[in-house]
Amino acid sequence: MLSLFLPLFLILLLVGLPVFVGLVFAPAFVLWLNGQERDIVLLYRNVYNGMDSFPLMAIPFFMLAGELMNRGGITLRLVEFSQALMGHLRGGLAHVNVLSSMLFAGLSGSAVADVSALGSMLIPAMEKQGYSRRFAAAITAASSVIGPIIPPSGIMIIYAYVMGESVAALFLAGIVPGVMVGVGLMILVAARADAWNLPHTGRKATWGERGQASLKAFFPLMTPVIILGGILGGVFTPTEAAAVAVAYAIVIGLFVMRSLRPSDLPDVLIRSGLTSAVVLLLVGAAMAFMLAGMILSLSDNPLVLLFLINVLLFIVGMFLDAGPAIIILGPILGPIFVELGVDPVHFAIIMAVNLTVGLATPPMGLVLFVTAAVANMRVDEVVRGIAPMLIVHVVVIFLITYFPALCLTIPRLFGFVT
């Protein structure tokens, strides 16, 4: 089935059909060719069964919490906080862009939400201060991939659901890689500030101004603390934590900050519902068939295989969204590398980071198209600008691959990894 399914699936993507259609039509067509028409009914029934899961309910809740935070003006407060800390540096708004993405990741866990919320605000602001639109769009797209790495993360919830891993362990393991991507991009901006002729327009904020910005950002920044603290403390499950995040966002938006109006709620619910429906349909379609039995026979050296799997996942991420890719390839690749001695949490992070970076990689990276739409420019212009920044992503991927302690130290401290 695998040899027939993958070529057909890629052909459907290349002709422009949605991923969901490819995931549903390709296996059905293969079953029809094999004379298994009765199994087609079971296939589509499994689309619903693939979504019918209590752990997966965390995804729409986290998306709703992120939408509430964004509509309530939380994004602006995070940007102001980042500006107070780093706005005075050469290329200050580029640093602010990256730091804001790192902070926003703790609220939404979505690269697309990051681009939509921060890009619409920061790209025009950067252009106004003298940055080229191409650079502003590129740094926004490059930093947005931090969203699904730093917890909470939708794709890690999907991986935990498919592979039976601990959501809390994956959340903790994603902290250091996410920070590494952000710091790496900041180092790149600082090192290339002169070559890229980045402006130096901001003055250094006083400690009083930083204190005020910190107070304004305090309640938003408490969101990931509440989520992780509640999960690690055994107060609630990841799904319950997502629901608590929604309640917290409503309370601080309506009653504490008073930046969210009751009239905003219907549109917020509609937007988050549509986004959640897209993700869950992709999950259900991918869960309709589970591929297994693939043998990696190119080498018996785990280090070589890790290198090859990074190349494979990087290529897959160029064409396929992270969620479906995890559901399709996780059950195939995960057990193989666990047998080779790779820690399951370590492999989960390798896979998640690789596929997340694929969101910002041509030719079909979703983040590139969203960024182009937000910046009102062509996708190829964004691609040319982001190319140097992808080097940072690749370096981080290989560092976490060959130095497992970068991923596993924090989960080990909390007892999730031996």
Can you describe what's shown?
The chain has helices at residues 2-14, 19-33, 37-51, 58-71, 74-86, 92-108, 111-128, 133-144, 154-163, 167-173, 175-191, 207-232, 238-256, 265-287, 302-319, 322-339, 344-357, 366-375, 379-402, 405-413. It contains 20 helices and no strands. The two termini are 37 Å apart. The chain has 418 residues and is mainly alpha-helical. α6 (92-108) runs parallel beside α8 and α11 packs across α19. The chain has one domain.
Q: Which class of secondary structure composition applies to the elements?
A: mainly alpha
Biggest pleated sheet: none
Percentage of helical residues?
over 70%
Give Rg in angstroms.
Answer: 21 Å
Q: How many domain regions? A: 1
Number of strands: 0
Which geometry do the CA atoms define?
globular
Query: What sequence of helices (H) and strands (E) makes up the elements?
Result: HHHHHHHHHHHHHHHHHHHH
Briefly say what this structure is.
This protein is mainly alpha-helical.
Keywords:
single chain; 418 residues; mainly alpha; 20 helices; 75% helix; globular
Helix and strand topology:
Layout: H1 2-14, H2 19-33, H3 37-51, H4 58-71, H5 74-86, H6 92-108, H7 111-128, H8 133-144, H9 154-163, H10 167-173, H11 175-191, H12 207-232, H13 238-256, H14 265-287, H15 302-319, H16 322-339, H17 344-357, H18 366-375, H19 379-402, H20 405-413
Helix pairs in contact: 1-2, 2-3, 2-14, 3-14, 4-13, 4-14, 5-6, 5-12, 6-7, 6-8, 6-11, 7-8, 7-18, 8-18, 8-19, 9-16, 10-20, 11-19, 12-13, 14-16, 15-17, 15-19, 16-17, 17-19, 18-19
